[in-house]
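[job 4471] stage=fold_predict status=RUNNING
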Amino acid sequence: MKQFILAVLAIALFSCSGGRKQGEAIATVFSVDSLFTVADQKLNDTIKVTGFVTHVCKHSGQKCFIVGESQKVSLLVLTGGEIETFPAELIGSKLVITGVLKEGEHVTHQQIEEKENSVKLQQQGGAAPETCETELRNIADMRQWMKDHQKDYYAMYYMEGLKFNVVE
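[job 4471] inference complete, writing structure tokens
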């Protein structure tokens, strides 16, 4: 009888969790910076990410961008779930957002080369050196990501937001 009860409890536990480790994924709060190091492994997972709001779409409030401490990468977050809109007042605020990570468009080798050539032409034409150097570093970072992840494209990620909390 004890074995039967233990078996029923085990089945109940696994059926409630669906056999997934969803609780573990949600328990971890990623910074925007750390998320991009594992994003390809977290696609379509419900995760939590924290970052600072840099932009809210002023026409609809249906999307916002957040950055991490390094401010090197940003993540687009779309409304969904409990989020009807992102109020403009959130700009500058630190949020913890729960949502589903998605992969958007891909940037190809050819597009990266075209961008690099464009930046070099701007540089020769007298464009601000800091801006050009930043863009060239971004291009180098994209190439490094492609190499590290053995991809022939650079992936752009976004999140379908479900809910958010402002962090004080």
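[job 4471] summary: The first helix runs from residue 2 to 17.
[job 4471] exit 0
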